[in-house]
Write a structure and sequence with these properties.
The chain is an alpha+beta fold. The chain has a single domain, classed as TATA-Binding Protein (2-Layer Sandwich). The protein is 40% helix and 25% strand. The protein contains five helices and six strands. It has a six-stranded antiparallel β-sheet with strand order 1-2-6-5-4-3.
């Protein structure tokens, strides 16, 4: 019960929390760099390692002109990818097809014109893997919002 109250308080403190069937996103009142560093720290605080950082915003900006696009979608946008050997093993022992959920990823991005606002988002795992992976993603996102 105490944990539920803490998580509820965190959800309220980080701003807007939206959950669709396939995605969770949170609006943070913090600069991009602070939010990104908080996600990395939250991952590392669990003894996990960031495997890769995708600089998706830079790629979209760099390639836009090549495909005739001029609209800026993000000010900044990165995807932090990480994995947990023990959690991945449990998930794939339960169903080898859960391989599609690895690595885990959390997106951090800012939108043009939104000052001092950063969004973090992740895909909600589905099926039996959800009960294994969703708590980890939720905790990392909540920690970053503190």
């Amino acid at each position: 019960m105490r944990r539920l109250l803490i998580l509820s308080a965190l959800a309220l403190s980080v701003g807007a929390v939206s959950s669709d069937e396939w995605m969770v996103r949170q609006k943070l009142a913090s600069p991009f760099v602070d939010a990104r560093d908080a996600i990395v720290m939250a991952v590392e605080n669990r003894g996990l390692v960031v495997n890769y950082t995708s600089h998706i915003g830079d790629m979209l900006q760099r390639t836009g002109a090549d495909i005739g696009a001029s609209r800026q979608i993000y000010e900044h946008a990165e995807i932090i990818e990480f994995c947990s050997a023990s959690l991945s093993r449990k998930m794939m022992e339960a169903d080898p097809h859960n391989i599609v959920l690895c690595p885990f990823a959390i997106s951090i991005y800012t939108l043009p014109g939104e000052t001092n606002t950063t969004w973090i988002a992740y895909r909600k795992p589905q099926g039996g893997a959800a009960k294994l992976v969703e708590p980890l993603l939720r905790e990392i996102a909540a920690e970053a919002g503190r």
